[in-house]
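Worked Example 4.2. Consider the chain below.
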Amino acid sequence: MNTACSITLFFFVICFIFPISQALNNGFSVELIHRDSIKSPLYKPAQNKYQNIINAARRSVNRVDYLYKNSLSTSPESTIVPDNAEYLMTYSVGTPPFKLYGIADTGSDIVWLQCEPCEQCYNQTTPKFTPAKSSTYKNIPCSSNLCQSVRDSSCDDKNNCEYSISYGDRSHSQGDLSVDTLTLESTTGQSVPFPNTVIGCGTDNTVSFQGVSSGIVGLGGGPVSFITQLGSSIGGKFSYCLPPSLLVSETQSNSTTKLNFGDAAIVSGDGVVSTPIVKKDSPVFYYLTLKSFSVENKTVEFEGLSLNASGNEGNIIIDSGTTLTLLPSKIYTDLESAVVESVKLERVDDPNKIFNLCYSLTSDKYDFPLITAHFDGADVKLHPISTFVQVADGIVCFAFQSSQIGSIFGNLAQQNLLVGYDLQEKTVSFKATDCTKV
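Applying the procedure from the previous section yields the following structure tokens:
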């Protein structure tokens, strides 16, 4: 996804493997670490702490354009643009397990990785996967229904299925469409294998991101996403809880959280609110219906971009890979005006020329207004930690942006919320949670 959350699964594979039925009986969880955390392999200790939010904001703005330009396509392999995700995922492929880092993305629906021998690969600082060394790796025949269901598939001279992915920034990945065992390690220390997972073994890859990442791990709703492939083994359920201030806080930069699957992903208890996932022309994204915002006692009605005959339903995408919340220009302007009426601080310009609404803050005790997002059936309270970000010493900006294309409910707004996806019930649930203690 050209998107961008934002999620990192960080774990190491141990030498023994439990049966899938045992590991998934009560669900399982894996640790998540933000890309800018000190535990992330992408962490840059010399980088100014405010540069993290600046970079994330720029990725968010680029992301929404690609998402909505491609949201009418039913092709699962054309929904990602690399370099805009916010979190990494560690997993293993093959037998014996070979550890890799991938960009975990709820707006993508394919698992692809760089493979040796590589004809043209981008600079990956960690070792690449070699299929010949895995006893469980298999090419998918060109005659299979799966191969024929992939729009841009083709056949090589050995009658093996090949995939081709093109991205909005002219990046691409091409290679063999294959199956192999994909293994996660849970936070209980158990390795959880998923045999016969469909993967793209890329041997011709040109992307904008560099470093440890081997490719993309799609957690979206499309037919070949990792979540879809897990299917009944996790009951169509996964959840996450994002700790606050991962982008700018030095004290929270080593906080970790979890990505939960199956029964462990059920969001329950007091305070849970749920909203329907709306089916749209693109099966990849999780569309919700946002009716309005309220800033204290002022209401801002939401009339989002309508992409089909369902009217205002499904007017916003919830996305773990986009940092900011992006809104159509008129709605953003009305929301900004409501915030300006409530905040009694001196307005200043953003020194980075990214955010439109910024304030001079001489004390950290100022009480910014509570903003509530009124989804269909779910009122979600957004506290200041999720709606304002510090971009420089003494300067705080409103973490929403206007968009000419469409709307995204980003990962910054999701901080300190336990967010659960139930694809069988077709709902997303929210529960206010201290995610540093999950």
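The two ends are 28 Å apart (CA to CA). The longest helix spans residues 49-69. Compare this with Example 4.1 before moving on.
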